[in-house]
Amino acid sequence: MKRVAIFGRFFKEEYTPKIQVLFSLLADKHFEITLFEPFYGYLIDKIDLPESFDSFNEGSELTGKVDLLISIGGDGTILESATLVRGLDIPILGVNTGRLGFLSTVVLAEFPLVLNQILEGKFSIENRSTLELTTEEKLFEDKNFALNELVVHKKDTSSMIGIHVYIDDELLNTYWADGLIISTPTGSTAYSLSCGGPMLFPKAENFVITPVAPHNLNSRPIVIPNDRQVKLKVEGRSKNFLVSLDSRMETMNATTVLKLNKGEFNIPLLKISDQTFIKTIRQKLHWGLDHRN
Length: 293
Hints:
CATH topology of the largest domain: Rossmann fold
Mean pLDDT: 93
CATH superfamily of the largest domain: Probable inorganic polyphosphate/atp-NAD kinase, domain 1
CATH architecture of the largest domain: 3-Layer(aba) Sandwich
Strand content: 35-45%
Strand order of the largest sheet: 3-2-1-4-5-6
Helix content: 10-25%
Number of helices: 6
């Protein structure tokens, strides 16, 4: 695994020396580097880059050329990375430049150790399921998938909206709320969790349906198998509503029908041997600590 692509956006100035170490290590160990072109433009005046590297703008340029994509940033950066490597079977390693994330679990200062573990084969590939959106309007075009979640939300009014939810064409419920989240197991620790949804292990074969600020207190999150189709129809005083897939957003109207299925491809994440989902949630949520003192 000596051919790497590197993707990132921006980072705090305090991380510059550690970013320099990252690139220097890759060069010293003779990795073939392919750098995201806009990230190169950001880095060129900040660090000394390797003498030889390729660049890319689109994921299609990586086919057959790289074994690993290193995402430098946070969980949001990994979600952007996923749009580049979707369907290419290129694993993503998240190197965090902020607080520990649920996806970006490698602290930047630990990268030298992690790189040695990768070279020694002490890692695993964890395939994360996706959800796929189908609409007659072809919303999001070829980026009609989410690693985390789909969200429907009100747009032009303070009034709540009604979201009719069907499971395999059978009405489940009409949620009167500010919005509704359909999340994958990966997304269960993101927006859904902040709205009271349950956490799922990454390999769970489920979706989570979580209302956002529901009007009725008996409207609760529900977990359903991800081999079922979820169909959404939206109504409200406004003619337009917002629909998002991870960080990408579009406007829809009341005639739009959203059909959700399990995605046809997974997003592979590289995990070092001692980093588990249980360890991550203990660290993130401070489980096991005595807060009474």
